[in-house]
Amino acid sequence: MSAVLQTFPLGFPWQTFDPFLFCVFHNDRFPKGNGHFGPDASLAGRVKGQDFAWKDGWNMYHGDKVPGFPGHPHRGFETITVVNEGLVDHADSLGAAGRYGGGDTQWMTAGKGIQHSEMFPLLNTERGNPLELFQIWLNLPSNNKMVPPHFTMLWQEDIPIVEVQEEGSTSAIKVIAGELNGHKAPAPPPASWANNPDNHVAVWHIKIPAGGQFSLPICNETVNRVLYLFEGGNAHLNDTLLKLNHGARVSASTKVTVAASETPVQLLLLQGRPINEPVVQHGPFVMNSAEQIHQAFADYRQDQFGGWPWPSSEPVHTEAKGRFARYIDGTTEEK
């Protein structure tokens, strides 16, 4: 039996498997900034508030003046925002805030409900402002869907990058969640499915040089393991060709060697033991039943998950000098 169980093209969003719900790759080549955190370019021809056309190589998304995602609610799952390049300004309904990027990850447990915004401030007014990030949704089991909201910052200085030598090549694996060769990722939020090592949750950013290879470690056979080839050329998974901009679900209990061709490749790995519970999703709410979804909408209409303490639906942190996080309890970190 082949170790490659399924291959598929990468759309928007990417196809995911339990315990993951959603994954998108944002790769925007934003122009220089206009001094007000937006693009120094005409917005003519864009559908304001709903711009996903990649005109000129970038989107405004739901932003009006600043690209990004203005305030919106979530309940019942977690968001993992992995920023390889560029910056994200976070603000939420509980008063927490942050600016992160350049290798940082924000891991937010929406739990019983939170509003947050994710804006992409274009700070550089002299040259372009490229942005590259993954937004990943990880489900919560039923007993944790209504926990209090929480977020954790995984600063790039604390996330291990593991160099693995194999057949004369050296690959670099950024371990955002999980463990590789004794190197553990920073702890996820306390209520996360990833917080139990028996669930084998892993989020890895894998870079393999031209002609190099990396063999995935053997894991439990119950685990869903998926690879997404998003940068470089084609690769081989054992004897199976994986084309650029394609994904593959592979056996976690069988040896799989990822081999690059004459071009370096980058892949995202998402792995975890499935939760195996009913999933009912309506927009930003993910619960176990239609009744729970109806209740989520009713609760949001009642108190809007804490309201919105910001002067705009798309706030940017104009006073910020660098990367920082101000948590729900008021404590602050600066980088």
UniProtKB/TrEMBL annotation:
Highest taxon in the source lineage: Bacteria
InterPro entries: Pirin (IPR012093), Pirin_C_dom (IPR008778), Pirin_N_dom (IPR003829), RmlC-like_jellyroll (IPR014710), RmlC_Cupin_sf (IPR011051)
Ranges where the Pirin N-terminal domain occurs: 63-138
All residue ranges annotated as the Pirin C-terminal domain in the record: 203-306
Residues forming coiled coils: none
Family of this protein: Belongs to the pirin family.
Descriptive protein name: Pirin family protein
Native source species: Psychrosphaera ytuae
Lineage: Bacteria, Pseudomonadati, Pseudomonadota, Gammaproteobacteria, Alteromonadales
